[in-house]
Amino acid sequence: MRFLLLHLLFVLLSLASLAYISELEKESRVYVKEKSIARDIGIKVFGEDGEEWKVRGRELVSFGRELTLIDVLLESASGYEVKANTITFRRDKNIGFLKGNVEIRGNAFFVKTEKAVIDFKRNVLYGNERVMVWKDRNFIEGKGFKAYLKPLRVIIGGVRTKHEI
């Protein structure tokens, strides 16, 4: 009888220890996403109205479904140029998130901010950060902007201006 009870106790302890080990394995699992890096990249992006953007970067990092370009330059077919430290693409929505020293240049204007979003479908750039805009000899500073590129129209929130005559 003692032998059966002792045997049953060992079986129960082994089942409990297996359950405990299984629980520890679940908690300590490390999930690794696939990461790829490419250098000197050029990408073409098209909007709904056929506007073509050439996107160039020093380095592309692909991490899961996310694409990030470093030291990026975007050039539109209609003459606009956008520079930034990084751009992260959401390919499903045709949107890019620009970060760090974002500069938008056109024929007659220059915009500088820290973060912006570019919607390639609608040819719109927008952001909620501090923004500085130069047009000819006029300077405009504000918080938040929306720049429609075709036709050109820039809307700035919280405006402070300086004009030279």
Describe the structure in your own words:
There is one protein chain. The chain contains 1 helix and 10 strands. The radius of gyration is 27 Å and the shape is elongated. A hairpin with a 2-residue loop joins strand 8 and strand 9. The protein has 2 domains: 31 residues; 128 residues, Lipopolysaccharide (LPS) transport protein A like domain (lipopolysaccharide transport protein A fold, Sandwich), CATH 2.60.450.10. Strands 1, 2, 3, 4, 5, 6, 7, 8, 9 and 10 form a 10-stranded antiparallel β-sheet that branches. It has 165 residues and is of the alpha+beta class.
Please describe the topology of this protein:
Blueprint: H1 2-27, E1 35-46, E2 52-63, E3 66-76, E4 81-90, E5 95-105, E6 109-119, E7 124-135, E8 138-149, E9 152-156, E10 160-162
Features of this protein?
ten-stranded antiparallel beta sheet, 165 residues, elongated, alpha+beta, lipopolysaccharide transport protein A fold, 16% helix, 2 domains
